[in-house]
């Protein structure tokens, strides 16, 4: 079988050394078979192993091959649609539960890093940067909203204050979330995989799930083996393909692009981001950036609907970087890559169960680093018979894309064009 390596990226080039893992060659039996060794799958596996389950993880390529190992590396709280939108959709009781969970994913990441001694350049502090007065007004109401759900590590920043943390004159203000932060995303997922194995879990790489035999004792087939399990957790997200057709209809893979500069040196890096916080702006089609552990600027943005790989990533992202930091005009770009995330029409995650024993979580819609860690805990709770938090997510309304799979890409691209105009003209 062909071996799928990591795509070229700064993260793959600076990943911590790990032993190669075997492909599944025979038949194994387990309590829970997890499909996908990214954050959702490994978070689920860890919580289950900590409660005595036997867990087998199947990964089509390598641990963290998908969005978990290629994202912007930012710990951002809440969901892609905030709690007030959820409240209007589902009412106060369900929103209360989801609101309480909105800040849990970041705490889970920090607990994992501390408990399992994961080396992933964890730094505290994330900035939401406002370009217009309307965006600043939104941050003010967001702070009040988050504080209503007990989230208090927030500071509104005026123009003078934001200049102290970001040397960029585009911003008129912002909000600092000290429970936000950033990590080396691939090293985090590799550390979580090692933690899974330290607790007796098994991970097979280069072992794509090609078919699920549903029923009372489900079986997951790979090209050279199969796993018999009591439960299955489907955690493939944007890289699931058509393995579970019911899930493919309600979601769309989208690409986002990231570039990484050469090392900037301590002086230039400190001049740009003195406290080493990560930053994202408040545009609908947002830009996000941060410093790496070795003082490179990692800058991402742009969305390609339908997950095509754009021909020249640097040509798309470098102008955005130079608009924020013109002082980098002579700096070399060492890495440029793309990765897919899974978009839902509501931009809220889809969580549920197929039959009695197949559980899934997907569709973080670009807000995955924290949500996936929470999802793992919620899925593990449901398998242990505590379904209240699982049900709060499972009851969120979801819709297929209009026109089905054929029309979902042009439909979403049209929406992005409209929101791009809104960003540009500030209305």
UniProtKB/TrEMBL annotation:
Keywords for the protein's UniProt record, in alphabetical order: Oxidoreductase
Domain of life: Bacteria
SUPFAM superfamilies: FAD/NAD(P)-binding domain
EC primary class: oxidoreductase
TM regions (residue ranges): none
InterPro entries, sorted: FAD-dep_OxRdtase, FAD/NAD-bd_sf
Catalytic activity, EC: 1.4.3.-
GO CC terms: cytoplasm
GO molecular function: oxidoreductase activity
Pfam (any one): DAO
Domain FAD dependent oxidoreductase: 31-381
Gene3D superfamilies per record: D-Amino Acid Oxidase, subunit A, domain 2, FAD/NAD(P)-binding domain
Keyword Oxidoreductase set for record: yes
Name the record gives this protein: Gamma-glutamylputrescine oxidoreductase
Chain's gene name: puuB_5
């Amino acid at each position: 079988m062909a071996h799928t390596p990591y795509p070229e990226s700064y993260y793959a080039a600076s990943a911590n050394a790990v032993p190669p893992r075997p492909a599944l060659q025979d038949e194994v039996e387990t309590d829970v078979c997890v499909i996908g060794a990214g954050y959702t799958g490994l978070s689920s596996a860890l919580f289950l192993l900590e409660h005595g389950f036997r867990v087998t993880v199947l990964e089509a390529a390598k641990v963290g091959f998908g969005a978990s190992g290629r994202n912007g590396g930012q710990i951002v709280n809440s969901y892609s649609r905030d709690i007030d939108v959820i409240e209007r959709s589902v009412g106060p009781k369900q929103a209360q539960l989801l609101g309480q969970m909105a800040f849990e994913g970041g705490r889970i990441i920090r607990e994992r890093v501390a408990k399992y001694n994961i080396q992933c350049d964890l730094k505290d502090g994330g900035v939401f940067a406002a370009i217009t007065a309307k965006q600043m007004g939104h941050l003010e109401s967001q702070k009040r909203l988050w504080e209503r759900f007990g989230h208090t590590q927030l500071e509104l920043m005026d123009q003078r204050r934001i200049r102290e943390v970001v040397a960029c004159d585009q911003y008129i203000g912002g909000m600092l979330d000290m429970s936000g932060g950033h990590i080396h995303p691939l090293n985090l997922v590799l550390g979580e995989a090692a933690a899974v194995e330290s607790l007796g879990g098994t991970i097979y790489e280069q072992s794509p799930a090609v078919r699920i035999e549903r029923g009372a004792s489900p079986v997951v087939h790979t090209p050279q083996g199969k796993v018999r399990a009591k439960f299955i957790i489907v955690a493939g997200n944007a890289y699931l393909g058509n393995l579970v057709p019911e899930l493919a209809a309600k979601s769309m893979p989208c690409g986002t692009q990231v570039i990484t500069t050469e090392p900037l040196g301590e002086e230039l890096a400190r001049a740009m981001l003195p406290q080493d916080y990560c930053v994202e702006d408040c545009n609908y089609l947002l830009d996000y950036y941060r410093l790496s552990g070795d003082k490179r600027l990692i800058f991402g943005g742009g969305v390609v609907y339908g997950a095509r790989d754009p021909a020249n990533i640097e040509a798309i992202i470098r102008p955005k970087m130079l608009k924020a930091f013109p002082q980098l005009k002579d700096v070399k770009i060492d890495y440029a890559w793309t990765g897919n995330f899974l978009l839902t029409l509501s931009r809220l995650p889809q969580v549920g169960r197929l039959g009695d024993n197949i559980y899934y979580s997907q569709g973080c819609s670009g807000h995955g680093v924290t949500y996936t860690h929470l999802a793992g805990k919620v899925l593990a709770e449901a398998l242990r018979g505590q379904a209240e938090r699982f049900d709060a997510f499972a009851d969120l309304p979801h819709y297929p894309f209009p026109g089905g799979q054929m029309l979902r890409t042009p439909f979403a691209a049209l929406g992005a064009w409209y929101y791009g105009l809104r960003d540009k003209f500030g209305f």
